[in-house]
């Protein structure tokens, strides 16, 4: 995909998020409308700034898909906050006495929904890399 088209899609996504945030109405607690609107905008700003230096087109495309998925979930469930995930029990971290296998990491990565990729912390990534190297 060309660089200009990707740039256009990123800007279009950002504008869409900001536009939705200004028209957002809280369903369950109308008094929290302003709080949810601010959360929506702040999350968008934070994640776009965090990923502004990404150059890999595949990674950019994945972030675009994540943003679109989060918009669709927020609009469908009328909840701007990330949804909880029910992972299969075999993909949960084991106790500290056992070393995890490569397939367990792969299963965990495949089980994580795309709309939660940006919530992965650097500590988790570093821990996974250290345990991966020891296998």
TrEMBL record:
GO terms for cellular component: mitochondrion. Residues 9-72 form the Complex 1 LYR protein domain. InterPro entries: Complex1_LYR_dom, Complex1_LYR_LYRM1, LYRM1. PANTHER family: LYR MOTIF-CONTAINING PROTEIN 1. Belongs to the complex I LYR family. This is Complex 1 LYR protein domain-containing protein.
């Amino acid at each position: 995909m060309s660089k200009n088209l990707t740039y256009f899609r990123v800007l279009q996504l950002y504008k869409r998020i900001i536009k939705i945030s200004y028209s957002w109405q809280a369903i369950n607690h109308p008094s929290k409308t302003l709080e949810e609107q601010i959360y929506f905008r702040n999350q968008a700003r934070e994640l776009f700034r965090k990923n502004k230096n990404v150059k890999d087109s595949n990674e950019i495309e994945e972030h675009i898909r994540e943003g679109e998925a989060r918009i669709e979930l927020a609009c469908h469930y009328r909840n701007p906050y990330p949804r909880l995930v029910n992972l299969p029990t075999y993909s949960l971290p084991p106790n500290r006495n056992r070393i995890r296998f490569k397939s367990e990491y792969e299963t965990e990565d495949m089980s994580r929904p795309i709309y939660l990729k940006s919530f992965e912390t650097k500590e988790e990534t570093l821990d996974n890399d250290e345990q991966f190297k020891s296998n």
